[in-house]
Amino acid sequence: MTMTPNSSTQPKTDLLALTLPQLQQWLKERGEAPFRAKQLFNWLYRQLENDFSAMSNLPLSLRERLAEEACIGPTIIRSELHSKDDRTRKILLELSDGKLVESVLMLYPPIGDSSSRATVCVSSQAGCAYGCTFCATGQMGFDRHLSAGEIVAQVLFFARELRKEPWTAAGLPGTAAIDHITNIVLMGMGEPLHNYTNVLQALRILNSSDGFNLGARHMTVSTVGLVPAIRKLSQENLQVNLAISLHAPTDELRSQTMPVNRKYPLSELMAACKDYIASTRRQVTFEYVLLSGVNDTMEYGQKLAELLAPLKQFAHVNCIPVNVTTASYQTPGPDAIRAFRNILFEHGISNSVRAERGDDIAAACGQLRTRFENSRKKTELPVVTP
Ligand code: SF4
């Protein structure tokens, strides 16, 4: 449970870190009836209220006590940026100890039969211990794990924004406006499975049918490949999607950009994925950042197809042309991307290409914080509170 200090030096309890049974217990310890927990959960996750004084069906005495002893996540937004097309929005959230993390909202208009989507890309740690060379967060080093409440708060921030002002794709008149979050991906700052307990707690809170009620199948946990944690996840009774940041099909190449590969080489990672599929019968997505001339050659395409062939239809490759602003890598051209994907198709490996988003607002993880901290050295930016 996250505590933040209040004016009377008593630590405040972050209610967003509590499941419904934990909230019931917390209220019980304060002499309150357990049914108040459901009312409070409703205010937090259905009404999306973040002001105790507005929770009109709670007695005034309880509202005052909540204001004194509890809080509703971190609320300081240091920076908020919208891409020119308003399909990507990014916030820099300041935590109670001054650490900064980024969250991104990605908005997708309807395609064919599928409806609009609003996906929040959530951070799970301040900084990261895994040091992938193509990642701005990886260059910062590790600060600390985020609490469950700090993870949940990122989702609620954008949920409130969409509730207040539903989004419709510009240039697509007649499409229904979207006013709620449809998906969560743990692909922001940090390695989610390194912060296993808090991440799982946050997902269970957001999944609760008494509260936010987001289906587990709409949640994706992305990992660099922490083998023991993947095995543990396969035993959880939670149908979340698993994505592996693969990015190279050989140990030699993968270890150059992803130091974690030296600890958990591809043979162990693939064995864990195979067992994960056997236990869950769920498809696993393999994220593959295409670095021109580095891992996108025909030879590596062939090796990738061979690596994933044993997983058959349970493997899907998400090809991501590198965002050139993140490091000294080059984005491959459309012909190279097509040729790479064709090799995978020829081997029966389903794949897609993720469109680049939000370049104009530094959407790749860690970039906004890096820019912010550089500029803060020169001048203090204004604080925005929602
Ligand atoms: S890609 Fe993920 S695991 Fe690797 S350094 Fe960046 S945040 Fe950490």
TrEMBL record:
Q: Where are the transmembrane segments?
A: none
Ligand binding (S-adenosyl-L-methionine): G190, E191, S222, S245, L246, H247, N323
Q: What is its main location?
A: cytoplasm
Give the CC-aspect GO terms.
Answer: cytoplasm
Catalyses: adenosine(2503) in 23S rRNA + 2 reduced [2Fe-2S]-[ferredoxin] + 2 S-adenosyl-L-methionine = 2-methyladenosine(2503) in 23S rRNA + 5'-deoxyadenosine + L-methionine + 2 oxidized [2Fe-2S]-[ferredoxin] + S-adenosyl-L-homocysteine; adenosine(37) in tRNA + 2 reduced [2Fe-2S]-[ferredoxin] + 2 S-adenosyl-L-methionine = 2-methyladenosine(37) in tRNA + 5'-deoxyadenosine + L-methionine + 2 oxidized [2Fe-2S]-[ferredoxin] + S-adenosyl-L-homocysteine
Q: Which GO terms describe its molecular function?
A: 4 iron, 4 sulfur cluster binding; metal ion binding; rRNA (adenine(2503)-C2-)-methyltransferase activity; rRNA binding; tRNA (adenine(37)-C2)-methyltransferase activity; tRNA binding
Tell me the Pfam families matching this sequence. Answer: Radical_SAM (PF04055), RlmN_N (PF21016)
What are the catalytic residues?
E102, C365
Q: Where does [4Fe-4S] cluster bind?
A: C128, C132, C135
Quote the cofactor binding remark.
Binds 1 [4Fe-4S] cluster. The cluster is coordinated with 3 cysteines and an exchangeable S-adenosyl-L-methionine.
- Cellular localisation: Cytoplasm
Note from the entry = Reaction proceeds by a ping-pong mechanism involving intermediate methylation of a conserved cysteine residue.
Relate the protein's function as given in its record: Specifically methylates position 2 of adenine 2503 in 23S rRNA and position 2 of adenine 37 in tRNAs.
Q: What is this protein called?
A: Probable dual-specificity RNA methyltransferase RlmN
Source organism per entry reads Dictyobacter vulcani
